[in-house]
Amino acid sequence: MARTKFDKQVDESADTLARGLARMLAGRDLDGVRRTDATFWRPGTRVLPKVEGKVRRRSYKPGWRRLSFRLALGGGVAESGYLTTRDLDATRETLTELWESREAALAALEPAGIGAASVLTVGTATYMVLTRERRELMREWVRPLHEALHQPLGLAEQTDPAPLPPRPEELHR
């Protein structure tokens, strides 16, 4: 029996969907390109050879952390969609009320905006204070040394210069 063009497109789409789902559940990069030596349980420490371009920080994260983020984000989107469509009449009435009384809606959002800005400011300041020493080390010593030695050592230019955590086999010596 001859396969039609439509059958081939359906098979190709199903294959692409299955591969994307497998990559998502495995915690790998969704485009299928391995950029670091990260595994599902262990974070990445270096960029793989022949990788070109900038390597994002999330490529160094272990797969379980990427998977947990993806599941939490997907669950939040699905839950929001479910709650929005559960009672469409009530949702429509609420949106109509908000649209008609914009001043009341903005007055209700002001305290939340101020609170969110305050939390963001305090969190940023705390992060800056706690990571100051590491940032200074990276700026003054590690990055220039890394840039000077990446070619003689044969490492990719995008290799993360952060200090490497000890490997499990090195801890038991």
Structure description:
This protein is mostly helical and 173 residues long. The protein contains 6 helices and no strands. The longest helix has 29 residues, at 102-130.
Order of helices and strands: HHHHHH
Largest sheet: none
Mean pLDDT: 84
Residue stretches low in confidence (pLDDT < 50, at least 5 long) are none
> What is the terminal-to-terminal distance?
64 Å
Determine Rg (CA atoms, Å). 24 Å
Q: Number of DSSP helices? A: 6
Shape: flat
Q: What is the β-strand count? A: 0
Strand content: under 5%
Judged by helices, strands and strand pairing, the structural class is mainly alpha
The residue fraction in helices comes out at: 55-70%
List the helices and strands and how they pair.
Layout: H1 5-26, H2 63-86, H3 88-100, H4 102-130, H5 132-153, H6 168-171
Short note summarizing the structure:
66% of the residues lie in helices and 0% in strands.
List keywords for this structure.
173 residues, mainly alpha, 6 helices, 66% helix, 0% strand, flat
